[in-house]
Amino acid sequence: MAKTSTTFERRNQLLALLHERPGVRVTEIARLLRVAEGTIRNDLIALSKEGLLERVRGGGVPIDDHPALSEAFANRMRVKDSAKQEIARWAAELVDDGDTILLDASTSVYYMTYYLKERHGLTVITNGIEAGRRLAQNSTNTVFLLGGMLNSNGVPVTDLVSDQFLRDLHIKQAFVSSSGFSPEIGLTERDIREAQIKQRMVQMAESVVALVDSSKFGRSSVAPFARLEQIAHLFTDSGLEQAWIDRLKATCLTFSVCGKEGAADYTPSLKEDRHFRIGFANLGENMPFAVDVRRGVERAAQAAGNIDLVLADNQLDGQVALKVAERMAAQNLDLMIEYQIDEQAGNRIMAIFQDAGIPVISVDIPMIGATFFGVDNYRAGYLAGVALGSWVHEQWNGQFDHLIILEEPRAGAVPATRLRSQLEGFESIVGPMEDGKRLVMNSGNTREISEQAMTTALKKLPKLQRLVVLCFNDDAAIGALEAARNLGREQDIVIVGQGADRRVREELTHPSSRIIGSTAYSPEKYGERLIPLALRILRGDPVPPAVYMEHTFIHAVDVMEKQNVENLPSELY
After folding, report:
1. Which helix (H) or strand (E) covers residue 4, if one does?
2. What are the start and end residues of each CATH 3.40.50.2300 domain in the chain?
3. CATH of segment(s) 276-374+526-542
4. CATH class of 71-266
């Protein structure tokens, strides 16, 4: 009976994971659920037989997430499916709540619907029956399905909606794919009638976003529908050859090459491009995480070739950050990237830059009026909480004596979400907390203060031997571990971190470490996203109000399998 219950719970977790992360592969599912890949494949087969999901190569799709696809459409979805999902994930970031968008009937654009589940209030005009039905499942969306004649693949190829109706909707973006693409001809289609409806989409939208997998490059179909200069942004996959990347870089096109671990954005590099002067005030140069962020920003700025970078150190101090902001505002900057810790100081810092007419990107700590970039706090925390709960369930039979939370009050409500969601994830595995089993301490956002706080906590709880520690960041995790070691109580605690910086990855190589893992923020990759975002703002392109890093929880086993911690595969972090 216990075995049946465990299998049932695991399969429910598997379905929930497929809902949350469309396209996730068997290897990743097995790692997240901490079971063998063969077990996951058997679960997928069983769930498919029960009618709860549809098997696709490398994984599965929940039936309620994948409504009534025609056989022809499902077959098209399987072609270059990984590349299409990678492209769709990044293209979907351009869509904000309340947008009015046009979607074509391609499978590449259909994959975007997986990543639009959390958007609300969309107005969607599409000739894709499948995309329309799926987005209509969200009751806050308004979906207009373009009617007309169907081709042999079930794709509407004529449009019965008037041009005036489309103009009145003030369509922000059209998302389209194609049968072929080349810089000289642009986007092309095999079917002339399908090309005609896409041509109208291009004409009616304020901007056009193309989703073109690498296999389409160099192909030229009979009917062109969008010239290169009509495309605001092109997304392709990491299979694109370098020769094509070089060709595109010499054009006026903004494009992104998307992979599992992220996307590389390329902006036009024409000779008449002006140089920009961008400021970057770092969180604190004594923190490994922040140093990795700064180095990544420097690399990305250098690669862009048209950026002068002005650097400063906020020293993890709100008052210092204010003085830095005053100096930066006098530096004739085009844009400021602000990475500082104090939510209260943030409003005053923004006022300084707004008075100077300088747009701001805030990193990890939101500031009103700035474009936010960084941590998806809820998801990052929840991943860690689930991992910690699973460890307690397996190692301590779900029992623990006390919970210690190392927080950072200065960061404000949004970053505090990562601690609340850690608790939610933890309770989702071990059950609700009992009253009086929680102790909250200030981490100070540093290893030293966290060590002092944890020392105090351990002395308050001298006889307890099963202590669970939730941390604001990896500095807090390292500090907590050092406190326990100094008091000879290392085996009394279990810790999860936030950030997965190089120190924690190093710690995870020790088989007996009481840090069982950390949610990866990939600080070394921040620059790859920050600099293209800054350039889009400076060009006046539309950008979302918040751009988040993707997060993965790194278990000790992930790191211990690698001989060189610094060369971990990117899919691990």
Report:
1. helix 2-20
2. 276-374+526-542, 377-520+553-572
3. 3.40.50.2300
4. alpha beta
CA distance 101 to 108: 15
The class that CATH gives domain 2-64 is: mainly alpha
Q: Rounded CA gap, 35 and 125, in Å? A: 42
Best CA proximity match to 195, nearest among 170, 227, 236, 171? 227
- Superfamily name with CATH number, domain 377-520+553-572: Response regulator (3.40.50.2300)
Contact partners, residue 470, CB within 8 Å, separation at least 6:
384, 385, 388, 403, 404, 405, 406, 419, 422, 423, 426, 496
Question: What are the backbone angles phi and psi of residue 407, rounded to the nearest 5°?
Answer: -100, 180
Task: List, by residue range, all CATH 1.10.10.10 domains of the chain.
Answer: 2-64
Distance (Å) of CA 401 to CA 438, 439, 463, 466, 540 = 9, 11, 10, 5, 54
Nearest in space to 528 (alpha carbons), one of 422, 373, 386? 373
Give the 3-state secondary structure of residue 264.
strand
Per-residue tokens: 473: 């960041």
Q: Where in 146-206 does DSSP place strands (E)?
A: 173-176, 180-182, 186-189
Cβ pair 153, 190 in contact under 8 A: no
Query: 362: Cβ–Cβ under 8 A, 6 or more apart, which residues?
Result: 338, 339, 346, 370, 371, 372, 373
Q: Where in the chain is the domain with CATH 3.40.50.1360?
A: 71-266
- Confidence (pLDDT) at 567: 45
> φ and ψ at 555, to 5 degrees?
-85, 160
Which of 61, 69, 62, 145 minimizes the C-alpha distance to 102? 145
- Is-contact 142 123, C-beta < 8 A? yes
The per-residue pLDDT for range 415-448, each reduced to its tens digit, is 788 899 999 999 999 999 887 898 999 998 888 8
Residue 52 has pLDDT above 90, yes or no: no
Torsion angle of alpha carbons 276, 281, 285, 291, nearest 10°?
Answer: -50
User: Is 90 in a helix, a strand, or coil?
Assistant: helix
Backbone angles phi, psi at 330, to 5 degrees: -95, 5
Q: Are 169 and 100 in contact (CB under 8 A)?
A: yes
The string of pLDDT tens digits covering residues 185-196 is 899 998 888 888
